[in-house]
Specification:
Blueprint: E1 2-8, E2 17-23, E3 30-40, H1 42-48, E4 68-75, E5 87-90, E6 93-95, H2 101-104, E7 115-116, E8 136-140, E9 145-146, H3 153-156, H4 162-172, E10 180-184, H5 188-199, E11 203-208, H6 214-220, E12 224-227, H7 231-236, E13 241-246, H8 255-258, E14 261-269, H9 281-285, E15 290-293, H10 299-312, E16 318-322, H11 326-334, E17 341-345, H12 347-350
Parallel strand pairs: 10-11, 10-13, 11-12, 13-14, 14-15, 16-17
Antiparallel strand pairs: 1-2, 3-4, 3-8, 3-17, 4-5, 5-9, 6-7
Bound molecules: NADP nicotinamide-adenine-dinucleotide phosphate and zinc ion.
Zinc ion binds next to loops.
């Protein structure tokens, strides 16, 4: 075991603060990464503040962070895919049983014995796992992804959650040339959704509550931008979408978006608001519409997404911050004031 630096929340109402934590030494199939960048996902805010208490109560101290890019500094004796000095990335998963039907299907995110990167029982040290707001992390090599050499590293970190969470449902619902795709909410997930839908050849419409994001939406790849409070513009799109990705982190009216789907169209929720969303049965019945959900993505698909980003030159648009600004960043995230993902430069933690 060794001591690592981190930022942790001591309770649901406490700001994140510096801490020293214990990590295991890399053994067997483990790799240890020096973390270079870690993205700030809205899920970090939900969990630090225990907003998902009914589904996955937060255990304190909580060290969030599941958008990790780093450099391998040590490997266990059985590691074959990485050597010290390699770049590697870690997303939301750090272990699974590897044998169940979900794992066999490459859908490790649905394994019943899954270990999440943070706030999951730690099968090595007891307590819970600690995430990427830290100077290092140790994971089995199966959960470390290859980072393509041509991508900016600060902008690559958010691909490990915001990227795969938006890429996976678009593949699942066969977004491609000729698809009309809506992206609801232009935040961390939403802006990646726009980039992917555009790269896949779709006609992309962004729905935003923030008039100030319109120009950015077009720059990111949107063909049209609709301010969601504009009832006329909303009505003009009724019954026309093949697929809509809803990334909103707070309570909102999803029926307004269900009504925009064509027959057999699909709305996929990836946003995870604390409160249940009300669904009008008729919104679904009328055109045999589908309402679905999606959770990050499996390991193979995450690697596929990284390789897709390499081919298409896609990374997240990031505002790089020192870790000392993390609490301010959380407040800005809650005000939808991020263009479009915060990425923590972990050199700032090493200097502390
Ligand atoms: P984010 O950066 O805060 O983006 C969310 C966006 O939603 C905001 O930028 C804003 O966009 C819009 N929005 C916020 N409040 C709203 C409201 N009251 N009404 C309507 N729109 C509102 O968050 P994120 O990191 O992208 O995460 C989004 C959600 O996805 C979170 O709930 C997160 O926990 C969840 N998530 C799920 C998965 C999964 O696997 N399913 C993975 C990661 C994250 P505009 O300014 O454009 O309106
Ligand atoms: Zn996330």
């Amino acid at each position: 075991m060794y001591e690592a630096k981190a930022y942790c929340a001591a309770s649901a109402s406490a700001p994140l603060a510096p801490a020293r934590i214990t990590r295991r030494d890399p053994a067997g199939h483990d790799v240890r990464l020096e973390i270079l960048y870690c993205g700030i996902c809205h899920s970090d805010v939900h969990q630090v503040r225990n907003e998902w208490s009914s589904i996955m109560p937060t255990v304190y101290p909580c060290i969030p962070g599941h958008e990790i890019v780093g450099r391998v500094t040590a490997v266990g004796s059985q590691v074959t895919r990485f050597t010290p000095g390699d770049l590697a990335a870690v997303g939301c998963l750090v272990d699974s049983d590897g044998v169940c039907a979900q794992c066999q299907a490459g859908l490790e995110q649905f394994c019943p014995d899954l270990t999440l990167t943070y706030n999951s029982p730690d099968r090595h040290l007891g307590g819970v796992t600690y995430g990427g707001y830290s100077d290092s992390i140790v994971v089995p090599e199966r959960f470390a992804l290859r980072v393509p050499g041509n991508l900016d590293l600060a902008g690559t970190a958010p691909l490990l959650c915001a990227g795969i969470t938006t890429y996976s449902p678009m593949r699942r619902w066969q977004v491609g040339a000729g698809s009309k795709v809506g992206v609801v909410g232009l935040g961390g997930l939403g802006h990646m959704g726009v980039k992917f839908a555009h790269a896949l050849g779709a006609h992309v419409v962004v729905f935003t509550t923030s008039p100030g994001k319109q120009q950015d939406a077009v720059r990111l790849g949107a063909d049209e931008v609709v301010i969601s409070s504009d009832a006329n513009r909303m009505r003009s799109h009724a019954g026309s979408f093949d697929f809509i990705l809803d990334t909103v982190a707070a309570s909102h009216d999803i029926n307004a978006y269900l009504n925009l789907l064509r027959r057999d169209g699909t709305l996929t929720l990836v946003g995870a608001p604390q409160e249940p969303l009300a669904v009008s049965a008729f919104g679904l019945l009328m055109r045999r519409r589908n309402l679905s959900g999606s959770l990050i993505g499996g390991l193979a698909e995450t690697q596929e997404m990284l390789d897709f980003c390499s081919t298409h030159g896609i990374t997240a648009d990031v505002e790089v911050i020192p870790i000392q600004k993390v609490n301010e960043a959380y407040e800005r995230l809650l005000r939808s004031d991020v263009r479009y993902r915060f990425s923590i430069d972990m050199a700032s933690l090493r200097l502390e």
